[in-house]
Amino acid sequence: MSPFDAALVANGGAPYALPRPASSKAAWRATKRWLYFFHRWTGIILCLFFAIWFVSGVVMMYVPFPSFRAPERIASAPPIDWARVKVGPDVALASLKQATFPSEMRIGMTGGDPIYSFVTKDGRRAVSAQIGAEIRSVDAVRAGAIAAVLVHAPVESISHVDHDQWVVTGAYKKMAPFWRVRLADAAGTDIYVAQKTGEVVQNTTAHERFWNWLGAVPHWIYSRRCGSIRTHGGMRSCGRPASGCWERSLASGSDCCASGCPSGTSRDRSAPIAAG
């Protein structure tokens, strides 16, 4: 029998390790204690995040994030009053003095007036189809009239908004700031009107806002930046979500898994080998 086999027999069949210095043992015990602590509590916190993401994802399956896309815009658009169109699209486009052709060009009724809307490399621009003048700003009264004509309901309140939970993406940043017009209708509709052009860019209802606070907002971690709340015209609005939030969450999860490897390995090695 070799000395190693004799050591195994003396140790009850478990692998025999050379004794470590007392300082090394104390350091290793302290390290393992912190690894266990970090692994346990990081896992608990991430499990809460996973539960939130799961439940909020289920909500998003049935109540999507509010949007005012082309199909809805076309369906709600009133017929164009061609008798009031006095300026052709070529004249309206020439008034903008653009070197390149716009990527989007359309005409529609905005607040009862025919308006040309253009998407150029400099952003969104609007020109009156009656007088051919570019619309450079829209005040709160005009924004209220635009929203009231669209929804067919009286105005309840009007607030200035740079960004909030419902106009939070980069596409809205190019169109900001907005007038948020709340209508006194049964649905509790909010209409967002671009202050630069008078274009309606977003609409939400009380139903959508309630369920998205349980769905899209926690799922995409929008509320993470709501600690820096700004007030504009009496409205509380929060900043845009911080970049890299998902990356930091994944990194935390990876650290949690990595911290479990040494502790799990040490526990496995310290367990006695069952006799065959």
Per DSSP, what share of the residues sits in E-state strands of 2 or more residues?
A: 15-25%
Helix content, binned percent: 40-55%
How many β-strand stretches?
10
Helix/strand-derived category reads alpha+beta
How many helices? The count is 9
Q: Runs with pLDDT <50, length 5+? A: 223-243
Order of the strands making up the biggest sheet: 1-2-3-4
Which outline best applies? elongated
SSE pattern, N- to C-terminal: HHHHEEEEHEHEEEHHEEH
Mean pLDDT: 77
Radius of gyration: 31 Å
User: How many angstroms separate the termini?
Assistant: 19 Å
Please describe the biggest sheet, giving its number of strands, its sense, and whether it closes into a barrel.
4 strands, antiparallel
Concise overview:
This protein has helices spanning 3-10, 22-62, 70-76, 89-95, 140-151, 170-173, 206-214, 216-219, 245-270, and strands at 104-110, 113-120, 123-128, 134-135, 155-161, 178-183, 190-194, 200-204, 230-232, 235-237. It has 276 residues and is α+β, with helices and mostly antiparallel strands.
Describe this protein's structure:
- It is a single chain.
- With 276 residues, the chain is of the alpha+beta class.
- Helix content is 43%, strand content 19%.
- It contains nine helices and ten strands.
- It has helices at residues 3-10, 22-62, 70-76, 89-95, 140-151, 170-173, 206-214, 216-219, 245-270; strands spanning 104-110, 113-120, 123-128, 134-135, 155-161, 178-183, 190-194, 200-204, 230-232, 235-237.
- The strands form three sheets. A four-stranded antiparallel sheet has the order 1-2-3-4. A four-stranded antiparallel sheet has the order 5-6-7-8.
- α2 crosses α9.
- The longest helix has 41 residues, at 22-62.
- The two termini are 19 Å apart.
- 21% of the residues are buried.
